[in-house]
Amino acid sequence: MFRKLKIELKSAQEIEKMKVAGKVVGEILEKLSDIIRPGIKTKEIDVWTEKYIRSLNMIPAFLGVPGKLFPFPASACISVNDEVVHGIPSSRLLKLGDIVSVDVGVLYDGYYSDAARTYPVGDISKEAKKLLEVTEKSLENAIEQTLADKRLGDISWAVQKTAEENGFSIVRDYQGHGIGRNLHEDPPIPNFGEKGMGIKLSAGMVLAIEPMINMGGYKVKTLDNGWTVVTEDGSLSAHFENTIAITENGNEILTKV
Known about the structure:
4 helices, four-stranded antiparallel beta sheet, alpha+beta, five-stranded antiparallel beta sheet, Creatine Amidinohydrolase
């Protein structure tokens, strides 16, 4: 039996608050491209991220989020190589050739914004570079479908088509989501689906669209810490995300500078 969705449409004023939070997320992700390098600890990236957020009197959205075993202990999810999402920052040193996904959320005046990027650590393999390019392109293609009177399945289809026509697979156990007064709201947004299917999109919806794409198979598993999700076959995974507002005039990416 299907659960009835509870989708909260946002006013222009609410979207403006989310845009303020989103701009900070975008600034962080842009600045990290210069900070991430071989030899840096993932915990150092997290510490810098939290300091940046708090310096603007905002709140890290992920810190303390409840989990199966313990609350999430950091301000950024930092996932390396075969880690898909929810990687816990640590003393792990990034190495030349790694790829690292950083997912950041910010709470401002009661509203959330959320985004992620996957970065190369120095020079990376051609295959890894293609994975990053295709994952980012899948997000761009999905955003093009994020318009009033389109269907939710159009977003999912765009991600899946872009990934699979390039020989990659879609993570099926995790998905995008609505966002606003809560970090995760309806509707859930799978990264696979059929064009023209699902609920109709409408102005006032704000969606966090986040392709998670694997170089190998689509299956994933969660490590014993209860948080970190990795590919089951050990293949590389990439993650790109933006928060998008649907308006009467099209759409707007809230998590960009």
